[in-house]
Amino acid sequence: MTDQTNGQDDFDGPAAPEHEPSASVEQAGRRGESEERLDIFEGVRGQDGNPVLPVQLKQGDMFAFSCHKGISCWNKCCYGADVIVTPMDMLRLSRHFGIRPIEFLDRYCYQAQWEKAGLPVAKLRMTGEDGSGPCQFVDDEKGCTVYENRPVTCRYYPLGLAAIKMKGQEGKESFSFLVKESHCKGHDESKLQSVAQFGKEQGTDEYDQVNAGWIDILMKASSWASIGGPQGREIAPKTQGMFYMVSTDIDAFRRFVFETRFLETYEIEKETVEVLKANDAVLLTLGFDWLKNVIFGEPTISMKETVLKEAIAASREEFGAG
């Protein structure tokens, strides 16, 4: 697999959209989309795979589950786990260790390709020669040593999170599903709770809010991958690299915003610019809004009028229009 972590190295300014961000293009893209289900968090995968119950669970639906130190399968789900590290995970876990996200990425993660969307993601590195050993953060006695800042995939378990985008619809509908693995005895416990109660107890809301733009891109890229990408093209390697950079190295994206022509090109309010200097979560939102514009032509961020006029004039000159 090609390393895409340095896709921004020779990038001296904001990328132009990969296709013209017009309403006609966006509508054509929506017409080309099929009904799509994307399993975002599939549960922590053990040796026996992920037996998924084919039932969509809404926020008010109830299920029985409990995980605690006294259970016989304590820590079993932390062995050979397949854990995607989301942008919010990267922020929380790097703060936990008192390091910056790129340091956390280098020490604890590896780059993988999410084939569903054709985009790179970071995954947590397991121990053992073949990756079947325990998570680096698990202690046999104490359990998860980063529990307060554990990844959102772990927070959701034993629930998976999926989203469905119906053909021609603007938004997506999210729902949960139950994952039952043979090693997990938590399903035999009597604690009954709703999906909403479980999410509140596990603290998933903050993660979902910050990760929303990242999930939107994966969702749409997955849908368009089935028809060959926007206008029949795959997402450019450089843009894939930018997606990975925003997802995993917020400091590199901050340098990109403040040390290139980004702020000269896009309409960003002065108050927001000041916030972007220190607030990683807000900067992530900007990053994924910008990528939606670059990849899909969505009107999530606006070019300054003078820049837009120059771009239009250059385009007309290139194609010989009067």
Topology (elements, then pairings):
Elements: H1 23-32, E1 36-41, E2 62-64, E3 84-85, H2 87-97, H3 101-108, E4 109-114, E5 119-124, E6 138-139, E7 143-144, H4 152-156, E8 159-165, E9 173-178, E10 192-194, H5 195-202, H6 205-225, H7 237-248, H8 250-259, H9 262-265, H10 270-276, H11 280-296, H12 305-318
Antiparallel strand pairs: 1-8, 2-10, 3-5, 4-5, 6-7, 8-9
| Separate helix tally | 12
The average pLDDT score comes to 82
Helix content: 25-40%
For the largest beta sheet, what order do the strands appear in spatially?
1-8-9
Oligomer: single chain
Provide the succession of SSEs: HEEEHHEEEEHEEEHHHHHHHH
DSSP strand content: 5-15%
Task: Walk me through what this model shows.
The longest helix is centred in the last third of the chain and has 21 residues, at 205-225. Helix content is 39%, strand content 13%. It is globular. It folds into two domains: 23-33 and 228-318, no CATH class; 36-216, no CATH class. By secondary structure, the protein is of the alpha+beta class.
What would a concise description of this structure say?
With 322 residues, the protein is an alpha+beta fold. It has two domains: 23-33 and 228-318, no CATH class; 36-216, no CATH class. The protein has helices at residues 23-32, 87-97, 101-108, 152-156, 195-202, 205-225, 237-248, 250-259, 262-265, 270-276, 280-296, 305-318; strands spanning 36-41, 62-64, 84-85, 109-114, 119-124, 138-139, 143-144, 159-165, 173-178, 192-194.
